[in-house]
Sequence to fold (119 residues):
Amino acid sequence: MPSPEATPTGADREAIIEAAIKALEQNQVMLDPTEAARAIGCGERWLRDGVNHGGFPHHRLGRFLKFSLQDCREIREMHHKQARPAELAKARRNRKAATRKPKGSGPAKPAAAPVPVAA
Fold:
């Protein structure tokens, strides 16, 4: 059993609660999944799946799923891949080569039978 001195009561307890509320309001904006998905630039379903299966940072307040701005930043960083120009150029060349038809391609034509010459 805690000692009476360890448990704040009355005005002390109210001051602690007020300080906690102010700290939360100043530092954290909590977004619901729809708002967070818009902020991140992804779909809501993808975001929810990432929370449930991929370990995306989030907060559960009871049955409500919430995201802080820091959570949104971390999710974006988790899926940010820096493209290298050489890889992009190579991918473009390969795509162009795959869509071009090679010369001489097409259905095979049967060779023309020699026409007999009348003597």
